[in-house]
Amino acid sequence: MASPSYRLPALDQDYLLGDSMRGLRFLLEYAKAEEELRAWGIRSTIVVFGSARVRPDTGDRHARWYNEALAFGRIASERGGALRVQDGLRDNVIATGGGPGIMEAANRGAREAGAPTIGFNISLPREQEPNAYQTPDLTFRFHYFAMRKMHLAMRANALVAFPGGFGTFDELFEVLTLRQTNKSPPIPIVLFDRAYWSAAINFDRLVEDGMIDAADLSLFEYADDAESLWKTLVARGVCEIER
Known about the structure:
Blueprint lengths: L12 H4 L5 H18 L5 E5 L11 H20 L12 E4 L5 H11 L5 E5 L16 E4 L2 H10 L1 E6 L4 H15 L8 E4 L1 H7 L2 H6 L12 E3 L2 H10 L8
Parallel strand pairs: 1-2, 1-5, 2-3, 3-4, 5-6, 6-7
Helix pairs in contact: 2-5, 3-4, 3-9
């Protein structure tokens, strides 16, 4: 009876964390968040990506990015429907990766508007303690990037990419690839701060060298302030509620 083989499988952590149960752990990470999102009636989200290293008190471009992300989180929550429950459902709820920086700002804007807001956190060596502005019941923690990405994408009505590093690029190109290959619905994708993105990625060079089609450049647009960002999303199909 002291042998590990005698333990109930559901209570045997060594077994559950073993290689053979990786598929089950994927399922658990999907199901736990899915159940809570359904309980809250979250039908659709607006996903905001961006650097965890941006701070509001730096007095430079970082501060501007933070404040614009905060303003956008508030605008999108007030005008997109996250404050209103209709037939038990909410739409356009702000969702982020749950960390500090741009993610904190977007969650904070939604929170200050009085809306629920989602944080899809992930276990990392640094920069990934949940920020203080996520709705507690909608604060999730993942081990697998793949499952986190799935939850970020599967309810998204739009994707907004603020300036960021490897993680932001990873998420952005994941969604761009899904759109390019028609593996996801035609959601609007907006890159915040044209100057940053134009300097960071030479999209025109990708076209010139035949890496992407010229038509692929229409998969995304640019915006340089929170108000124009929201208007771009609305122009591309995000519903705006009557105020």
